[in-house]
Specification:
elongated; 2 domains; Serine Threonine Protein Phosphatase 5, Tetratricopeptide repeat; STI1 domain-containing protein; TPR_rpt; repeat; 0% strand; single chain; disordered C terminus; mainly alpha
């Protein structure tokens, strides 16, 4: 029995089999459904659809297993900055009984007058060194008038005299919530941060206090914290600069690998048969199609798991594209591919910019508009779920 296929047809058939071996993804093209069914009828198994990487296999350089030279480790801790911690204290535990008054209380004129009397008496006790007594009197005044920023700032000052920086910070923060221009609150809170070794916060508050109402003591405290605060600020700037340099280096390395992969894919593509073009009875312009998909930006986009999963879903069932019309990431990539197909002069049936109806090779239909009844129906189904 003689072979019913011409020698030229056998050559094309062999070329087709070779491309199927190197790129089995093309077996999922709708046009090759008859060939898939033939293979399965003989007991063969078709590989599952890939992540839409339908071009020739790209060999991305593997990471070297050799241990890279260790870069000098720069510590990010402030303790390695040789900060002068003289005068710092152990943080005090916040007193749950530190009464803050009822912030929603309607304060009467009588309440204000009584609160002023308590404040004057508290200041007298504070000047005589009776700090605990002064705090009790400030607390009574706060309960009478919890809307006074001055009362909280002054009680904060008393807590500072007892070396209770956290209690002072709580009172001064409340004072600033009431009056954001309270120089006294910034001053005493800044001093408390200094005692806790929070140099940046201390410098920030003391600078603000000097800006609102300059006094010599606040200026002295600011000069005391400035050297440490400056070291920390410079350290953070250096750390941020190193971070940006590292990110830029990694970005350039990714682009380098993508270009190398693209170049290797192009070399293989040059060796790939074109199956005679659109008019020769073969796959229409398939070599050019694969070259388009090897664009570095498109290749990097497909490395996103969400994008890969979406395109695999669409390749399985073209009508699934309607599920992604509201996803800007997916639709941006489809628009980019559409533009490439249109600009290349290729006509892939059904793809936006292509001709005819049907599906993009692999099964992508034209994205439906918001007025498309099928899109509304699909969205209604999603809402029911």
């Amino acid at each position: 029995m003689s072979c019913p296929i011409s020698k030229e047809a056998l050559v094309q058939l062999k070329q087709f089999i070779d491309i199927c071996k190197s790129t089995p993804a093309i077996l999922h093209l709708p046009e090759l459904r008859f060939f898939r069914e033939f293979i399965e009828s003989l007991g063969g198994k078709i590989p599952d659809p890939p992540r839409m990487s339908t071009g020739p296999k790209v060999e991305v350089p593997e990471e070297s297993t050799a241990k890279p030279a260790e870069e000098p480790v720069e510590s990010d801790t402030e303790s390695e900055l040789e900060l002068d911690m003289t005068g710092c204290v152990e943080p005090d535990k916040l007193d749950e009984n530190q009464r803050m008054g009822d912030s929603e209380k309607e304060v009467t004129d009588e309440d204000r007058d009584k609160a002023d009397e308590k404040r004057i008496e508290a200041m007298q006790q504070l000047s005589e060194g009776n700090i605990e007594k002064a705090i009790d009197l400030f607390t009574e005044a706060i309960e009478l008038n919890p809307q006074s920023a001055l009362l909280f700032a002054k009680r904060g000052q008393a807590y500072l005299r007892l070396t209770k920086p956290n209690a002072c910070i709580r009172d001064c923060t409340r004072a600033l919530e009431i009056n954001c221009d309270s120089a006294a609150a910034y001053k005493f809170r800044g001093r408390s941060y200094r005692l806790l070794g929070e140099w940046e916060l201390a410098a920030k508050d003391l600078r603000q206090a000097c800006t609102i109402d300059f006094d010599e003591q606040t200026d002295e405290w600011l000069k005391e914290v400035t050297p440490n605060a400056k070291k920390i600020e410079e350290h953070l700037l250096k750390k941020e600069r190193r971070k940006k340099e590292k990110e830029e280096k990694e970005k350039l390395e990714r682009l380098r690998k993508a270009r190398e992969a693209h170049a290797k894919a192009a070399e293989k593509q040059d060796e790939m048969p074109d199956f005679g073009g659109a008019g020769a009875g073969g796959l229409p312009g398939m070599g050019d199609f694969y070259k388009l998909l090897q664009d570095p930006e498109i290749m990097m986009a497909f490395q996103d798991p969400e994008v890969a999963a979406a395109f695999q879903d669409i390749s399985t069932n073209p009508s699934n594209l309607v599920k992604y019309t509201s996803n800007p990431k997916i639709m941006a990539l489809i628009t980019k591919l559409s533009g490439k197909f249109s600009g290349s002069g290729m006509n892939f049936p059904g793809f936006p910019g292509g001709a005819g109806a049907g599906g993009f090779p692999g099964g992508f239909p034209k994205p439906p508009s918001a007025d498309d009844p099928s899109a509304r129906a699909h969205n209604d189904d999603d809402n029911l779920d």
